[in-house]
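The instructor's notes for this session suggest beginning with a concrete chain rather than abstract definitions. Hand out the sequence below and ask the class to guess, before any prediction is shown, which regions might be ordered.
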Amino acid sequence: MAISWQGVYPAITTKFTSDGALDISAFLNNIQAQIDAGIDGLIIGGSLGESSTISHDERIQLLQVTLDFVKNRIPVLVNIAEGATHQAVALAQRAQDNGAAGLMVLPPMMYRPTDRETMDFFKTIAMSTDLPILIYNNPVDYKVEVTPAMFEILLQYDNIQAVKESTRDVSNVTRLLNHFGERLKILCGVDTIALESLLVGAHGWVAGLVAAFPRETVAIYRLVKAGRIPEAIAIHRWFLPILELDISPQLVQNIKLAEVMTGLGTEHMRPPRQPLIGKERARVLAILEAGLDTRPTLPSNLPNA
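After discussion, reveal the predicted structure:
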């Protein structure tokens, strides 16, 4: 299924039962809410999906049940976050063989590679698959930046097509657009600056809090793209305290608690992660309760995707 690299692409959470098994029912319940809201694609097994705790087999299982469920309504991507190139290649090939529409690929994990090693990692994966690739550029969390000079080389591979732009520097959206035009599609990967990134030309949004607030997330995207900026800003101002829960080492705990509050998930996660407790839990609950108490009425005439 073709990927436009435009719209809202949830980095979906992975649902677990209390004993740590995959909770497929809860997982699909959330995906249904995403589809009902009008999302444009899904990413399985990202950082928010607890990538470090799920196996290759489990990713493929999640891919298969998702594809059966969405029935070609939206493209489904598999995240690759591996420490070894051969493991990344193996997962890319399995994802392709099992029907994934594309890949999101992080730089090598557990080891801080040089620029040459980073590019060789991405190039080797690109050569191993026909699937389109979204490169995750997050130097804040992963200490590796994919610079415009590196993209000059990487974009020689036709299936490297997009970037999840998470440098937290909004000006980098314009920098990349000036440098590559439409050759490199840009998807904002930081919830708190998605509105600003879209306003300066980002094509899409890989979202986190969409897991609990799909309709509000889609509304902001569509209103911006339709030029209805004041309406988008009004929703964003309400949303920002909640969106800030995404830029935290405990983003999984925060967002899973938000999913519980909105009836779209559970708090179960795999160790070493544990649900929030004490003062931090009270702080996050206060933010979510305040947001839910003032949740805006969305425009009834949202533009189509």
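Then share the key points. The longest strand covers residues 160-165. The chain has a mean pLDDT of 97.
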